[in-house]
Specification:
Elements (H helix, E strand, L loop, with lengths): L13 H9 L10 H11 L27 H13 L1 H10 L5
Length: 99
């Protein structure tokens, strides 16, 4: 971001970020494809498409659960993931989550 022709605008609000793009206040946004698609479908009625640049490098985000003090919570969570595999798959499909 050391290019003087590039202005960095930051916000913690995903909806605001997408609105900036749709109103053409910014040329591009850095956002997870899953998050973008979910919010576009849920909150916006698009009149033109929004493209995700799959050719650009992306970060694979992982959310992990660990505990030294509470190993039983980890076991319960693993059991939950196995016993609710069908429901989790349905939710991933509904919200278009690939991983």
């Amino acid at each position: 971001m050391n290019n003087e022709n590039v202005e960095l605008i930051e916000t913690a609000n995903v909806i605001e970020l997408i609105e900036l793009l749709l109103r053409e206040r910014v040329e591009c946004i850095y956002i997870s494809n899953d998050v973008l698609n979910y919010n576009l479908l849920k909150y916006f009625k698009l009149t033109r498409p929004v493209y995700f640049q799959n050719e650009l490098p992306t970060d694979l985000q992982a959310f992990l659960l660990s505990s030294i003090d509470y190993p039983d919570i980890i076991k319960k969570f693993n059991t939950f993931l196995i016993s609710h595999k069908v429901q989790i798959s349905k939710l991933k499909k509904e919200y278009q989550i690939k991983n």
